[in-house]
Amino acid sequence: MSDENASQVTHLENELLKSRLEAQKKDKLVHLLIGLVAGLAVGFYGANWMNTSTGNAARAAGSAVATAAPADENHDGHNHPPGEHPSGDGGAAMPEVQAKLKAAEDDPSNFVAQMDAAAMFHRINNNDKAIYFLKRAYALRPDDYDALLILANKTFDAGRYADAKPLYEKALAMRPDVVDVRTDLGTTLFQLGDLDKAIGMFEASLKQDPKHEYTLQNLAVVAIQKGDTAKAEDALLRLAAVNGGNPSLGPLRKDLDTLKTTGKIPTH
Questions:
Q1: How far apart are CA 228 and CA 223, in angstroms?
Q2: Which of 15, 146, 158, 226 could form a disulfide with 127 if both were Cys (CB 3.0 to 4.6 A apart)?
Q3: Please, are residues 55 and 85 in contact by the beta-carbon 8 Å criterion?
Q4: Arithmetic mean of pLDDT, 229-233
Q5: Left if phi > 0, otherwise alpha if psi is -120 to 50, otherwise beta: which for 245?
Q6: Nearest-CA neighbor of 115 among 20, 15, 18?
Q7: Is residue 74 within 8 Å of 66, Cβ to Cβ?
Q8: pTM of the model
């Protein structure tokens, strides 16, 4: 790979991972379970990924044109012409989008081109097609940790939890010291209905980092959903000690009080 291509890959991966870290501040699990009550902002990745050379922000859920990927890859019902951006950029970046998509299709063995195309689909809001190109990139470099993690995150965003699980498992096997990935795997297990394994993952994360805020937050949520008031209470006390201003504390305490008073698991 040329120095220029290597630089492009590093830039893309850095931007993706930076947005991923920002996304931890909008915890996936709590948003899904108590987001409406807590008034948390919608959006998983935030607006960092595409604040790069194109100068446009993106959200986690995406939608874009179906020309580059097979039609059955689009399941989200948000199909837009090439270059259309729901936030209203007027299609200013359409030539660049088209060029990047063409480059990816013309050279499927080009890792950078596949990552570029994935970024374009993410930018114009289409998770499914971003995943399509991320899969192609990952197939070219199956041992690339960053490509693997980006694909896992996007797969989770699309609600494909069964597909996300082995990706997170592989990422965790590659770097078992990364607490965020272990917690993401726990969150995925919760979405698949395995509350006990989810709690086990969160507790393992907390052994590595006892003050990991979003793990404590997730642990409280899952403990409440499991009906384990003692574990939920402990997690909330620890969460409050780490960050008394965490916006999920109030709703979670309310849910725990409801569970204690009625014996019924709160639903939202």
A1: 5
A2: 158
A3: no
A4: 97
A5: alpha
A6: 15
A7: yes
A8: 0.69
